[in-house]
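[stage:ingest] chain + small molecule (threonylcarbamoyladenylate)
[stage:ingest] validated
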Amino acid sequence: MKENIKTKIVKVDPENIDYEIIKEASKIINRGGIVVFPTETVYGIGADALNDEAVAKIFEAKGRPQDNPLIVHIAEYDDLYDLVSEVPENAKKLAQNYWPGPLTMILYKKDVLSDKISAGLDTAGIRLPSNKIARAIIKESKKPIAAPSANTSGKPSPTEVTHVIEDLMGKVDMIIDGGSTHIGLESTVVDVTLDVPMILRPGGITLEDIINVVGNCEYDPAIIKSNEKIIPKSPGQKYRHYHPKAEVILYKGNMEDIVQKIIEDYERLETEGKKVGIMSTVQTDKLYYNKKTICVGDRTKLLTISSNLFRDLRLFDKQGVDTILAESVNDQGLGKAIMNRLSKASSKTILV
Ligand code: TXA
Ligand code: MG
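[stage:predict] done
[stage:export] tokens:
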């Protein structure tokens, strides 16, 4: 692995964009380099999607398995037609309602998108992000930009520039600091080549949001029964993912029982010499009195949890915690995406 690239870190205010920096970033993209930029979901590590050598650098920098396809980002709806061979009615409606935004649509690709991007599939994931910095770079470079999350493969996705620096310093040409990302979890991936759209990865646009627009939608069965041996349609979902260094144990059931069991396990693990942390979804310090706790957000406002989840998993690592005991949330709406990431981050689920 090469680690000798000089990485330039620059700050950009999304509300007052410095277009000199955007031009510089676009030049890097156009000469086959790598730029990390914020999106409304997580930070992305971007390269010219039409340049195989540049795309190969993304796989190398992340240590990403070659059979995991990349999402291609565009700046305008019409750009879609350059990349895919067919735009079904459902895709048009979803784009009208949720683009720009945290929705990636799987569509049959044109040959301009190489096997390197699609990992040999005949489809590609396309997304039009709403973050102004991301859109400005795509627009200025006049290229579709391949951009997976800007983390080392397997680790929690980056929601702040410090996370990107931890994982990718010396491996990319430029990192743009645009502050904390808004949603904090990656986009919803939906296969719209099927008559009934299928969610392959839950995210900011929910099943209910999609049904509201196109009438029907379902989850890939592999998302619902993640413990069984069903092969997910989205290659990325089969990998070990979102893992902090600490072991994560996820507790499911009603809240009162969860709290009681977490307290019990905390005390037992502590006597075994472990450094334990609790990831709580209730904003009170009385619940786990005198125990090491991070309140990830408010379980009645799921966006507060999604936006902090990956940051707090990394925070526990910084504090040297060995075992994270995590409360679950109701898996409706955005809760489905939160529970999907927590289930993947955890080595064990305890039903109370
Ligand atoms: O929010 C996001 O989507 C972020 C930001 C940077 O845009 N990007 C992101 O990319 O999360 P990545 O590579 O970490 O996740 C892409 C997911 C993977 O699970 C991949 O397997 C799936 O999308 N995917 C990409 N192309 C696909 C295809 N043609 N068919 C099925 N799944 C696909
Ligand atoms: Mg990722």
